[in-house]
């Protein structure tokens, strides 16, 4: 049995032990747990469309925080970027999407979503905005309506790779590939 100690004589270690005793029997609801301690949401495989890899990502990101980068077209100042992205955030808020916005450069912003399953719907909204140059989501770059024509053409399709010949001819030099989402995918 511990000695009875006056509360005025408690030091930091005593207070920490007292807090642990209070929290030990306390039932914490699942929603109050930090995201990394919450159990993952069950995935309903019947909703997955094998032709659309985005459907798998939507289900795996449900209930998780997700970040996307947005680039404003032209050469805006940081204040202009703030105003434009604020309008986008307001439009998304009016459509019941919980989005937080952080300006990270003169023409770039990060949008933080509490529920990552809505990210692709938000991406579709953003790339249809006149001043949106591109949206980066899960490593994929999606060109927006405001992207320069040279960027759109460059990222539209990737060149076909030359087929290897049996006699050992050298492979022709191919154009450097980037991670743009609008490129056609090769069959595996």
What's the short story on this structure?
It contains 5 helices and 5 strands; from the N terminus they run H-H-E-H-E-E-H-E-E-H. With 188 residues, the protein is of the alpha+beta class.
Structure description:
The structure is a single chain. This protein has 188 residues and is α+β, with helices and mostly antiparallel strands. It has a domain at 54-150: ACT domain (Alpha-Beta Plaits), CATH 3.30.70.260. It is built from five helices and five strands, in the order ααβαββαββα. The N and C termini lie far apart (69 Å).
Secondary structure topology:
Blueprint: H1 12-24, H2 53-60, E1 66-72, H3 78-94, E2 99-103, E3 108-113, H4 119-127, E4 132-137, E5 140-143, H5 149-156
Antiparallel strand pairs: 1-3, 1-4, 2-3, 4-5
Features:
five-stranded antiparallel β-sheet, 188 residues, elongated, Alpha-Beta Plaits, alpha+beta, 5 helices
Total beta-strand segments: 5
Note the total helix count. Answer: 5
Helix content: 25-40%
Task: Please name the CATH architecture of the domain at 54-150.
Answer: 2-Layer Sandwich
C-alpha geometry? elongated
CATH class of the domain at 54-150: Alpha Beta
Adjacency order of strands in the biggest sheet: 2-3-1-4-5
Family: Belongs to the MESD family.
Region (Disordered): 23-45, 143-188
Pfam families: Mesd
Biased composition (Acidic residues): 23-32
